[in-house]
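question for whoever is on the cluster today: can someone run the full assembly for these? two chains, 233 residues total. i dont have access anymore since they changed the login thing
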Amino acid sequence: AQSVAQPEDQVNVAEGNPLTVKCTYSVSGNPYLFWYVQYPNRGLQFLLKYITGDNLVKGSYGFEAEFNKSQTSFHLKKPSALVSDSALYFCAVRDGDAGNNRKLIWGLGTSLAVNP
Amino acid sequence: EPEVTQTPSHQVTQMGQEVILRCVPISNHLYFYWYRQILGQKVEFLVSFYNNEISEKSEIFDDQFSVERPDGSNFTLKIRSTKLEDSAMYFCASSEAKGTHGDQPQHFGDGTRLSIL
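^ ran it for u. tokens below:
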């Protein structure tokens, strides 16, 4: 069965410090991995994806994520956090071998608080 | 930047009543989706729609649920006889058809908060 785990409900970091939001996944086929961010009263906004190729992918707002196949992880990172990065972050996976079945399986989300 | 729009933002309905949630996907997108998020729980996939038919649905998407693309722009989710446990945030999403096997990201609307009384 496919699943996503985000082991931390909340991450606190000081502005200017690096941040990491963790994600591990389980999928039977090739993992297609995504990070989304949700601001209060808003929808899920796409940040970045890993489909194939370079394990380090760069996305919006200076975020990046590293795909690690052996650890089945896809942690979200940013070298220098901003207060405006404070939001809810969701990791999602789909089975890349599932053809046109494109449903995303989601983690529970991690609340990121960046303190000034 | 084009957006997925959803209406209404909040819907309050009596248990047993029918409700229709509306979505306008991004205009050149061909795949459409509905997800829901019960408060404090995971985002859950409900259904995907392509080429005027359902391409996949979850076990949540039972006979009470239906989707429709009534014209060239709208994509609707209907719940026939609502139950208390249908209370959730419902998200519509769309994605482009290009690329292989769904590597295009899904773009989400701001959601409709459905409250069943």
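summary bc i know u wont read the tokens: The interface with chain B takes residues 32, 34, 36, 41-46, 49, 51, 90, 92, 94, 96-109 of chain A (CB under 8 Å). Chain A has no helices and twelve strands.
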